[in-house]
Amino acid sequence: MSEALDAKSIRAIRTSLGMTETEFALLFGVTIRTVALWESGVVVPSRITAMVIRAESERAAAAARSDGGGAAKSRAPRRRGRNAARSSSRLRA
Q1: Is 27 within a domain?
Q2: Which residues 6+ apart lie within 8 Å of 74 measured at CB?
Q3: What's the CATH code of the domain at 34?
Q4: How far apart are the first and last CA of the chain?
Q5: Structural domain tally of the chain?
Q6: Which H or E run includes 56?
Q7: What is the CA radius of gyration of the chain?
Q8: Containing structural domain, residue 28
Q9: Which residue from 17, 27, 47, 56 has the highest number of Cβ atoms inside 10 Å of its Cβ?
Q10: 1 belongs to a structural domain
Q11: Quick check: helix, strand or coil at residue 92?
């Protein structure tokens, strides 16, 4: 069974992925505040979330190795659904 991720590990994973707290939060379906709480050590991710974070970190590392060390920056998924058009139109304004 995998151990809980500590604050330093979470921050190290996020920065190694080249992500902001916002991008990291979007990728894992949590709030920016949750990411901040994880990284400050106030809260730890659930066991399943920790497993997903580790898996994404390993996937990105494998992609970087297969690219010959080229930065395979993982990006947060695009918003989909009924609010996607609203949020993208706000960004254009």
Answers
A1: yes
A2: 17, 18, 19, 27, 56, 59, 60, 63
A3: 1.10.260
A4: 48
A5: 1
A6: helix 47-66
A7: 15
A8: 7-88
A9: 17
A10: no
A11: helix
